[in-house]
Each structure stands twice: as C-alpha cells, then as structure tokens.
Amino acid sequence: MKNFILFSVLFFAFSVTNVEGAIYRMIVEIGKEASYDFGEGMFLIRRFTPASLNPQYLFASSSQDGTWTTDGIDKIPSSAHLNWNGTLTFKTISENDIGSYEMPLEPSRIPMAQSVIMFELAGS
Ligand SMILES: *[C@@H]1O[C@H](CO)[C@@H](O)[C@H](O)[C@H]1NC(C)=O
C-alpha cells in the first residue's frame, strides 16, 4: 500500500513536469512564414502532422527540397528548410505543418520528457 501511494505521487509529479516543463507553443498562420530555433546540434527534426499517419523526419542536409520522410523513401512536400544550427524555417505554413515537433537528438534528461513544440494556429 505504501508503495502504491509513493508510485502515485511520483506518477503525478512526472505528469506535471511533463506538462509544464517540456511543451512549448509556436503560434503560426496559414500562408505566413514561420521560424523556430531548435538549438545547436538539432539537425534532425521529427514531426506529427496531418500530412501522414506516421512520424515525419527532416534532416539538415545541404540538398534539401523541403520534403519530409517517414521511411527515408517517401517524400512529403513542405516549404521547410532546416539549417545545421537547428533553425527550422517555413516559407509558407500550410495545414500539413500544424502539429507537434520533436528533437530525436535532444539529450534526455530523465525523468524529464523530451521537448515538444506545438505549432498551433492562432485562436485554436
Ligand atoms: C542559423 O543559420 C541560418 C542560415 O545561415 C540563419 O539565418 C539563422 O539566423 C541562424 N540561427 C541562429 C540562431 O544562429
């Protein structure tokens, strides 16, 4: 019983940390430019958006055409460009860019969850 209470407390503490510590909001507008600085060393970004049921990846290669990929083969178009310094820029935001963005290369700070950046429409 004591363990159960301890577990509940830990679990609660973790949930709170998860909400308050690691989720950021980025308000964007369809058709407008948007830029987010993920930080030094973040040259791989993963996102979940309506563009695919699977996680999509973008790598800061020198030959980027803006496409994201779920498996290294498929190409999901966007106006994105990821610089080596971790700055992600969209020339024009589309519906398919609305969603959550994560950094698979971010060092994990257990028990903190990795950061999630929510690209949201104003007023939603
Ligand atoms: C990252 O590099 C791009 C392109 O060189 C530049 O426009 C941007 O300002 C840089 N961002 C930071 C945070 O240094």
Describe this structure as you would to a colleague.
This protein is α+β, with helices and mostly antiparallel strands and 124 residues long. The chain is built from one helix and eight strands; from the N terminus they run αββββββββ. It has one domain (22-121): Immunoglobulin-like (Sandwich). A five-stranded mixed beta sheet has the order 1-8-7-3-4. A three-stranded antiparallel beta sheet has the order 2-6-5, with no helix packed on it. The protein binds 2-acetamido-2-deoxy-beta-D-glucopyranose. The site of 2-acetamido-2-deoxy-beta-D-glucopyranose has 4 residues, from loops.
Short account of what is shown:
The chain has 124 residues and is an alpha+beta fold. The protein has one helix at residues 2-22, and strands at 23-28, 34-37, 44-48, 56-59, 80-82, 87-90, 99-102, 116-121.
Which tags fit this structure?
single chain, 124 residues, alpha+beta, Immunoglobulin-like, 5-stranded mixed sheet, 3-stranded antiparallel sheet, 1 helix, 8 strands, 17% helix, binds 2-acetamido-2-deoxy-beta-D-glucopyranose, signal
